[in-house]
Amino acid sequence: MNIKPLLISLTLIFSGAAQAGIVEGFYVVDVRVDRSGHGFISFDQDLNLPANCINNHPRHLSFNVNNPAGRSILSLALSAQAQKARVWAWGTNSCEEYSNTVESWSYGWINKE
Fold this sequence. Notes:
This protein is of the alpha+beta class. The chain has a single domain (20-111), classed as CATH 2.40.50. It has helices at residues 4-15, 68-83; strands at 22-26, 28-33, 38-43, 60-64, 86-91, 103-111. The protein starts with a helix and ends with a strand.
């Protein structure tokens, strides 16, 4: 019996990597960016499997516009909101921009139906 797949699965579960917030076809309600360059996207539904670090922000993913990835996330969110397109995204299972408050964005895309 090969137990390697079982060990990998258990490692992912216990490391929390399997519990990153998931956005599955949600709409962008609003986008906020503050003076520090940190921002977050509000969705119309709660994240599926949000990170344990969130605190009263179950519908948000955060980003940082001070880097190219964060600017891309902002562009994606504003485009999705303007087009009324659905968003698919995954969080990082951590709260980097807003400690113990909002889960950070890892990757995602929009789909105009």
